[in-house]
Design goal:
Layout (H helix, E strand, L loop, with lengths): L2 H5 L6 E2 L6 E2 L6 H12 L1 H10 L3 H6 L10 E3 L17 E3 L7 H20 L12 E2 L8 H11 L3 E4 L4 H14 L5 H8 L2 E5 L3 H37 L1
Parallel strand pairs: 5-6
Antiparallel strand pairs: 1-2, 3-4, 6-7
Helix pairs in contact: 2-5, 5-6, 6-9, 7-8
């Protein structure tokens, strides 16, 4: 789409290394937030898992409850990505009770990061881009829990490739074309890209998340002035 149409909606357009293809970066801090949760709520378990050569994330994701968490997490722990690029704010975890387990907090963080991503995806049709399927890559794509949750919230199938390090795989395909190993990018893709599993949204869960999305969207509008004031106060503390 014309770059002006994208920029007006907080989205960028950049040329891809492959001629005729383009890139728009829709990102958030989901991975960083999960790492913060790990280091804050399970630091000792993480240390022990490292010593044993295990991955603590499997155990942590096993604790998340079924359905919506009942927690609203505003993922403003650092500057956000598109479409709003919010810098002067603070993260919020709301809805805590004495009976709230830590697994619900983790799921609330995952939900908040996905709600933020949904605000990007929902703007794409306005630019003429129709999304029928999403591909999951990177570290978060290893979690079945996270991918199913994302499919349920976004209301679209999420497909995990066999190789989830998309940047490295794409570079290998481009190198294959450049070196003559492949006659075209299409041939390289057909040779090297395999799809492992599709996570299909569950209609009932998608409906359950609708009111929680509305509550999430209302949190920033209600607290914006306060959070900006709090962020300024914290910045002043650091400068001293």
């Amino acid at each position: 789409p014309p770059s002006a149409v994208m920029i007006a909606r907080g989205l960028n357009t950049e040329h891809h290394a492959v001629p005729g293809k383009y890139v728009s970066f829709l990102y958030n801090q989901g991975g960083a937030l999960v790492k913060w949760y790990r280091d804050t709520f399970a630091a000792e378990e993480h240390r022990q898992a490292l010593g044993a050569g295990d991955d603590v994330y499997d155990a942590l994701f096993a604790e998340v409850p079924e359905g919506p968490s009942g927690i609203i997490a505003l993922p403003h722990f650092t500057t956000t990505g598109p479409p709003d690029f919010i810098s002067e704010s603070c993260g919020v975890v709301a809805g805590l009770r004495l009976e709230t387990p830590r697994g619900a907090i983790l799921k609330g963080i995952l939900e908040g990061a996905t709600f933020y991503l949904k605000s990007c995806v929902d703007r794409l049709p306005e630019t003429g881009i129709t999304v029928t399927e999403l591909r999951a890559t990177g570290g978060g794509s290893k979690s079945d829990v996270w991918l199913q949750l994302s499919a349920d919230i976004l209301g679209r199938p999420l497909v995990r490739p066999a190789v989830t390090e998309a940047g490295a795989l794409g570079a290998a395909i481009i190198a294959g074309v450049g070196s003559g190993a492949f006659n075209s990018f299409g041939e390289g893709i057909a040779s090297m890209v395999r799809l492992e599993r599709t996570f299909t949204p569950v209609a009932e869960r998608h409906a359950q998340y609708a009111p929680w999305l509305t509550r999430y969207q209302g949190l920033w509008s209600r607290l914006q002035d306060y959070l900006q004031e709090l962020a300024a106060a914290k910045a002043e503390m650091v400068s001293r």
